[in-house]
Amino acid sequence: MEMPTRLESERLIARKYEEGDGRELFAMVERNGNREHLSENAENVSRLATETDAEIMARGHSADWVGRNRFVMGVWLKGDEKYVGEIWIEPDRWDVPSFHIGWLVDGGYEGQGIATEAARRCPAFLFDDLKAHRVSAITRDTNPRSRKVAGRLGFRQEGHLREFRIDKGERYGVLHYGMLKTEFSGG
Description:
By secondary structure, this protein is α+β, with helices and mostly antiparallel strands. The protein has a domain at about 5-135: Gcn5-related N-acetyltransferase (GNAT) (Aminopeptidase, 3-Layer(aba) Sandwich), CATH 3.40.630.30. Helices cover about 30% and strands about 35% of the residues. The protein has an eight-stranded mixed beta sheet with strand order 1-2-3-4-5-6-8-7, with helices on both faces. The protein is globular and about 40 Å long.
């Protein structure tokens, strides 16, 4: 299956992780209070303790891509090549085929449309390149920014599991969003 490993937008480059990207991933975790910021929705990233741990994660993402187990892309600003986030796509069922998509953004860049812009090319990647029939996104009901991104991308809210989980003694729900190939407008 031929597919792109790099997606570009006006301000961003989202691409498959490469050797050496762990340095930038770890630098992002360490700045702008991101360790705490990401602990809610990207626990595995927030727990990176060293640059070596981040490099192992980046190389694991690269290996997952080759094995078609998971498609994780780092997101960089064009021009200064600053790492500002991540997009991940996970196969749910290859027989349908259906996938899950998610995103994270450096807390210092929230509110600038980075997640929306980075994720906007992903439905075309999923429906055209991976031949998806269905794509879903799951967000916490306490995360209004992610809910807005899902809406801007054209996902429909399909369900709300109220008070579904507990984090730090607080209950929260999860929202399920979906998009079918027939609902995808092509970009």
